[in-house]
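Homework-ish question, so no full write-ups if that breaks the rules, but can someone show me the predicted structure for this set?
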Amino acid sequence: MNNEALIRFCDVSYRYESDNETPLPLAIKNINIDIKKGEFVAILGHNGSGKSTFAKLSNAIILPESGNVYVEGMDTADESLEYAIRQKVGVVFQNPDNQIVATIVEEDVAFGPENLGIEPDEIRQRVDDALKAVGMYEYRLHEPHKLSGGQKQRVAIAGVMAMQTDCIVLDEPTAMLDPKGREEVMKSMLRLNKELGKTVVLITHYMDEAVKADRVIVMNSGNVVLDGTPQEVFSHEKIIEDAGLELPDSAKLALRLKKSGVNLPDGILTPEEFIEAFKLSLSGGAVH
Amino acid sequence: MSILEIKNLSYKYGVGTPFEIAALENINFSVEKGEMVAIIGHTGSGKSTLIQHFNALLKASEGQVLLDGKDINESRESAHKARFRVGLCFQYPEYQLFESTVYKDIAFGPTNMGLDKTEIDRRVRKAAEFVGLKESMFEKSPFDLSGGEKRRVAIAGVMAMEPEVLIMDEPAAGLDPRGRKVILDLIKNYREKTGSTVIIVSHSMEDVASVADRILVMNKGKIAFNDTVDEVFSHEQELREMGLNIPQITKIFSELKRYGFNLNAATYTVDDAAEEILRYLHKGGN
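A: Not a homework solution, just the prediction itself:
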């Protein structure tokens, strides 16, 4: 098996339990995905497309109906490996208020490593490092419920960091945050990936977050419909729209103008790229 | 005449304890009949505390809330009536569904208003139509619906009270782009058809720019701006300092303007932006 893959989905299907006789349709249909070490992957899809199911399957919170999920070669269906798997892959959920357990920030971050039976000195070190990594060290003695949403989410991320997992899967971590909170969390995620080499899987509804990833996976009704760099993925406007999503505004604008004959390059995704391309396009002097 | 008027309103949490803290300080503003006003502000800026005053869920420490010119806290009765006249739809309202069928859930508000059966039925059907729920769903359990459908049931439940003022706290939060559009379109349609006053609280600058006539910006318990969309989004720097932002398209336009392109920076949507740029190019860059 390819040991480059940190998380590997092999022909995975999953179905939620129905509370009556009619079984529910498959939430995830026979999907194959490899998440490689050190990647920053964004997963996009409409509500109910199977994104959150992917998150829960990735560290044995739920198990496939058929197929296998491997974390560094360990089968998540093997109960004896559950702890080992959760020390590799940690998950952060949407609502920060549902995942904070302690009354002091640093105690909350220490909760995970304490449960792993780690030595106190080592815990101290890990908690400090994790809080510094997300820029929350100066808040270590604060009460979590008094923090803003973005700060709480960063504490939740630090909690996973302190377990020293290689991979962090975040399920819509910014859905409930204000613009500043979103920016803070995005910065922390990029930092974990670029500076600390963590593998990050970001599940999101925000296209402007996805364009910052190395790789984007689009899910539609339980299937993977696109998988590639942001430039590749967002060049498929039709598939994106059929999946209930949309292009980032900058990309939409560029495309609209190109169709009207304005000379702009392919692959514009961000405001910065649009501005650069627009200036270049007009500096030829043809119009300006 | 203003349908809703807030006069010198202040609200303190934990009065008389060492933890007393002012959540709202001397708020003054009014909303005209039929207006669509957006309230934006960072987490903890006082948005939710403020809107809970509009239907007497919270009672101001100081100041007044006037509905159609009358203080809603004048008597117990007027405060009670305000609950129906000002419909408040909370964030993630789908978590508040509890009835056994969709129909009963939508009918809950009107039933509590003491209306007769025919009137309740009329209102349920009308509200369901506004949110795009088919009659075939009426007898289903709300818990068997998808997340987006549940949210629409919850919104219909508030609309069925036919409030004079409809307040929605983050109606599109957590939805995918298509789901967001569906919710925003149905709010726009509801307002056009009924002429109701709508107040929407949102963290999405794009959504706010696309629906609102006017924006109220809250910062640290005070009103920072109370102005048109154009005016508010022309203050990028101040908004950023308050933990907010401007729409992505507006960012592009204000930046291009800085580089000397003579474009109208008060542009928020992709459609308007494309039109404005093409207009600019056809005029030869002026």
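Now go work out the reasoning yourself. Hint: Strands of chain B lie at 2-13, 21-32, 36-41, 62-67, 70-71, 86-89, 165-169, 197-201, 214-219, 222-228.
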